[in-house]
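Q: Trace token order:
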Amino acid sequence: MNQITHKTRGRIYCLIVAMIAITVGSGFAIVWMQQQISRTAQHSQKTEALLAETVRKLRYLDERIATMHQPVVLQAKVAGTLRPSMDNQIVWVRESNAPSGRAYAVSEPYEVSMDLAFVDLSARR
């Protein structure tokens, strides 16, 4: 009969131990991955709920802004203070600069207003 040598038995034993170790390690890895997936799903669910709440608040604010900018609402706000101008009426408007001294509108034909794109805001910090 064929007898298995001592060296071959050792190799078979090592192979069986390696297979068992790989199987147990893979089982633990699968359980760990499932836990990570569960944690990620819970975190995603909380983030989606927060996003949905933020979107709901933004829609509410957009609705309020749209309502406040309706011509009927704007007319109601100034109903007692505005009146149509008369044909012979002259309206004088006093020119004044902004408190910061910056001019955002052109008051003379060749005057250039300051462009905010060229302002270095980081220099003032």
Summary: The longest helix spans residues 6-68.
